[in-house]
Amino acid sequence: MASHDQVGYGRPPKHSQxxxxxxxxxxxxxxxxxxxxxxxxxxLSEPLRTRDRTGRKRTLQTLEAxxxxxxxxxxxxxxxxxxxxxxxLLIVGPEIDDENEAWEREIWEARQKFYQKLGLSQEEIDxxxxxxxxxxxxx
Length: 139
What we know:
Strand order of the largest sheet: 1-2
Order of helices and strands: HEEHHHH
Number of strands: 2
Number of helices: 5
Largest sheet: 2 strands, antiparallel
Helix content: 40-55%
Radius of gyration: 29 Å
């Protein structure tokens, strides 16, 4: 038997080898399941039927309704909900133009006064400021 006709490990018989232009997997790869973030986005964008204070039916996205509930908890005195609302505002809120330092300083001072009026400890204020600075660098 010639060396090019040998069959063994890594040398399949000629009749079972792929022909030129033929794929080794003609049906293709199985589709991946959707990513977790896509599933969360789908769930959070689903409509949710609620009633407002006057009793009228309203349709909100699940994300809107959950943020509304978080804001209501914060307004009723739940401190952790308040911190979550503030954290969300800092993350998704509009970014301040870096060129306008005077405006940024004014906003920073107003934020500090707001935190102090809320009765937050200096440690909590520092955490919120650190969170704000880390989100500004990310974008």
